[in-house]
């Protein structure tokens, strides 16, 4: 049969450690530390070593498999953890469009960029469902499994449908993201009850004055957060509508670069309506507590 190189390495390490008198416990810990993570994808012919690479994951508890694009900074090495930006596309766009919008500014900072292919809402719009949120969370988890990601510096941003999803992910799971930037999207669905959760995730929201319905919603959230003394950065372009606002993206990336998630925050202020979102940081709720709310 074929030889397992990992098994060979393990046996050689076992002999060396036994010779040096290390305990079984120390040996086990070292072997676990040295187990190989998934290999960094190789660039195909004619493609930059940075990517974009198309990555997939099989169906899990969701009805659909996961597919996303990823780009790596030119000096990426698995020994150095990097910030991760999750980029989300609009209803009639795709992961490539989101990558084109966000990758240039983020890669200049040395970040990893992952652009989700949101197959659930494509052509239909964002429904604010657990499956849609699950795709976003699984993309982040898969990137963290494959690449050296700094868990304290995971960011999310998106346009239109992706803007709605950015709001939803940031407010529903505020302990997962260090900052969020929804463009031409507004709070809707479940997350409309979770605006107080912005206590944990800084927000940078961009709208166009003529994008009437979305801008109206964002103005209301902005005023609400001002009253709570939790102001977000709100940028509204006068005389413009439902657009990409590409000139704002470098400013957003620069702003995000100064944000990092504390590992153990002293205070947790968290709102939840169901067991899907029953935990934030070190605070969790039981089923009985959720029902009483």
Description:
The protein is α/β, with parallel strands linked by helices. 34% of the residues lie in helices and 18% in strands. The chain is built from eight helices and ten strands. Strands 1-2-4-3-5-6 form a six-stranded mixed sheet, with helices on both faces. Strands 7-8 form a two-stranded parallel ribbon. The N terminus and C terminus are likely disordered.
Task: Record the SSE blueprint.
Blueprint: H1 5-20, H2 24-34, E1 53-57, E2 66-71, E3 82-88, H3 95-108, E4 112-116, H4 130-146, E5 149-159, H5 161-172, E6 179-183, E7 204-208, H6 212-227, E8 233-237, H7 249-256, E9 279-280, E10 283-284, H8 287-292
Parallel strand pairs: 3-4, 3-5, 5-6, 7-8
Antiparallel strand pairs: 1-2, 2-4, 9-10
Produce a short descriptive summary.
It is built from eight helices and ten strands.
Question: Main attributes?
Answer:
34% helix, 293 residues, disordered N terminus
User: How are the strands ordered across the major sheet?
Assistant: 1-2-4-3-5-6
How many beta strands in the DSSP annotation? 10
Largest sheet: 6 strands, mixed
Mean pLDDT: 81
Q: SSE order, as H and E?
A: HHEEEHEHEHEEHEHEEH
Q: Unreliable segments (pLDDT under 50, ≥5 consecutive)?
A: 1-37, 289-293
Rg, Cα atoms, Å: 21 Å
What is the first-to-last residue Cα distance?
60 Å
Number of helices: 8
Assign an overall shape: globular
Beta-strand percentage? 15-25%
The helix/strand class is: alpha/beta
* Percent range of helical residues: 25-40%
């Amino acid at each position: 049969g074929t030889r397992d190189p990992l098994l060979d390495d393990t046996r050689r390490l076992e002999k060396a450690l036994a010779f040096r008198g290390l305990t079984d416990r120390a040996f086990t810990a070292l072997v676990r530390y040295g187990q190989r993570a998934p290999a960094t994808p190789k660039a195909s012919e004619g493609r930059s070593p940075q990517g974009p690479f198309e990555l997939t994951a099989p169906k899990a508890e969701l009805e659909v498999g996961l597919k996303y694009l990823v780009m790596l900074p030119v000096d990426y090495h698995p020994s150095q953890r990097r910030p991760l930006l999750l980029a989300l596309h609009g209803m009639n766009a795709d992961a490539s469009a989101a990558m084109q919008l966000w990758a240039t500014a983020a890669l200049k900072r040395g970040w990893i960029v992952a652009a989700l292919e949101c197959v659930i809402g494509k052509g239909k719009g964002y429904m604010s469902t657990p499956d849609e949120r699950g795709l976003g969370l699984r993309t982040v988890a898969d990137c963290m499994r494959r690449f050296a990601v700094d868990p304290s510096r995971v960011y999310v941003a998106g346009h239109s449908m992706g803007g709605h999803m950015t709001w939803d992910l940031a407010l529903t799971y505020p302990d997962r993201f260090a900052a969020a930037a929804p463009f031409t999207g507004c709070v809707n669905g479940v997350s409309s009850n979770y605006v107080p959760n912005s206590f944990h995730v800084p927000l940078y929201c961009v709208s166009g004055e003529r994008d009437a319905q979305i801008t109206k919603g964002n103005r209301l959230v902005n005023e609400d957060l001002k009253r709570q003394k939790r102001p977000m950065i709100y940028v509204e372009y006068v005389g413009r509508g439902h657009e990409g606002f590409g000139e704002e993206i470098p400013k957003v990336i620069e702003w995000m670069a100064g944000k990092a998630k504390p590992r153990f925050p002293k205070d947790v202020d968290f709102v939840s309506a169901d067991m899907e979102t029953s935990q934030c940081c070190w605070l969790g709720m039981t089923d009985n507590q959720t029902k009483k709310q």
